[in-house]
């Protein structure tokens, strides 16, 4: 599978990689004979290493994302309990918004705990390296990664007219894939590659507007589900021409992020296609027409 980093995330990764390589080449001792091993002064190296965590109050390397994101979590083990505050005090924390949507979703949000917010590439990796991967989470757990200020509920203003692309994968056959799939989904979300109109609009000077509000991974007894939530959903008549843009997100998710060939059919026992459903249709729980890519 190829990397899906783009825009600032890709630039940030490249910058970090070249800085690391430059540091390494500086450290090579030219007086060494071929095959001779350089002695390492661990103490001096520990003092000299420049990482983003060297200075917890003023990071010396920080690559901003297009927007800040918040990770939410729920599992049978967190129901009715408050999660302890994260020990990484350098991560920015902001209060949960108090909008009418938040009040309406109160019951649904009761067991969903806010873990942390972040707004840079470094903070994302700091978080990612310190949380449990989906394949090791208990059954019925979910991670929700949403843009800051948007709660992971249909009722939020940003979600109420939207929908979701999702794929369901049998758990036994995908234990080894799900962690990578979730990582690549998160990277595509924070790197804003799902809806590239955002980056085009920004370079024209127009206000950026991405259709993506968040991404979710759900662990269920027999399957995993990964979902991409959008602000809007196409209408049956598609008078606003939104359908093509929504389908573009689904195709990018299926081919570039999950790594399936475009024409491959995926549905089978416990598996679905990559399919789109509006939240209004999800709420109705009826037989609604899904878009499939
Ligand atoms: P789910 O967890 O998205 O589906 O929604 P799943 O995994 O098929 O079902 P589970 O029972 O195995 O978890 C499950 C149910 O939660 C829905 O049928 C709704 O009743 C409720 N629900 C889900 N979402 C995303 C929302 C939401 O955003 N708001 C509210 N109020 N209820 C929700």
UniProtKB/TrEMBL annotation:
The keyword Lyase is assigned to this record: no
Alphabetical keyword list: Initiation factor, Protein biosynthesis, RNA-binding, Translation regulation
GO biological process: regulation of translation
Keyword Protein biosynthesis listed: yes
InterPro entries, A to Z: TIF_eIF4e-like, TIF_eIF_4E
One Gene Ontology term of the molecular function aspect: translation initiation factor activity
Cellular-component GO terms for this entry: eukaryotic translation initiation factor 4F complex
SUPFAM superfamilies: eIF4e-like
Family according to the record: Belongs to the eukaryotic initiation factor 4E family.
Protein name: Eukaryotic translation initiation factor 4E
Organism: Armillaria gallica (Bulbous honey fungus)
């Amino acid at each position: 599978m190829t990397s899906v980093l783009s825009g600032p995330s890709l630039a940030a990764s490249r910058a970090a990689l070249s800085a690391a390589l430059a540091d390494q080449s500086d450290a090579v001792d030219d007086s060494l004979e071929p095959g001779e091993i350089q002695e390492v002064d661990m103490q001096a190296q520990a003092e000299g290493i420049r990482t983003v965590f060297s200075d917890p109050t003023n990071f010396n390397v920080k690559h901003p994302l297009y927007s800040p994101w918040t990770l939410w979590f729920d599992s049978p083990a967190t129901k009715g309990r408050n999660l302890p505050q994260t020990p990484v005090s350098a991560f920015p924390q902001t209060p949960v918004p108090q909008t009418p949507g938040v009040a309406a979703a109160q019951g649904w949000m009761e067991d969903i705990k806010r873990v942390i917010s972040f707004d840079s590439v470094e903070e994302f990796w700091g978080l990612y390296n310190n949380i449990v991967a989906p394949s090791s989470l208990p059954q019925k757990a979910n991670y929700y990664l949403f843009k800051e200020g948007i709660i992971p509920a249909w009722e939020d203003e940003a979600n109420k007219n939207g929908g979701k692309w999702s794929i369901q994968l049998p758990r036994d056959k995908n234990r080894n894939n799900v962690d990578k799939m979730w990582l690549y989904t998160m990277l595509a979300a924070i790197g804003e590659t799902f809806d590239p109109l955002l980056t085009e609009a920004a370079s024209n000077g127009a206000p950026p507007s991405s259709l993506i509000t968040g991404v979710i991974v759900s662990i269920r007894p027999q399957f995993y589900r990964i979902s991409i939530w959008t602000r809007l959903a196409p209408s049956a008549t598609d008078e606003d021409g939104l359908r093509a843009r929504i389908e573009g997100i689904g195709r990018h998710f299926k081919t570039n992020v999950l790594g399936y060939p475009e024409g491959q059919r995926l549905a089978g026992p416990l598996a679905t296609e990559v399919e789109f459903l509006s939240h209004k249709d999800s709420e109705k729980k009826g037989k609604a027409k899904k878009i499939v890519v």
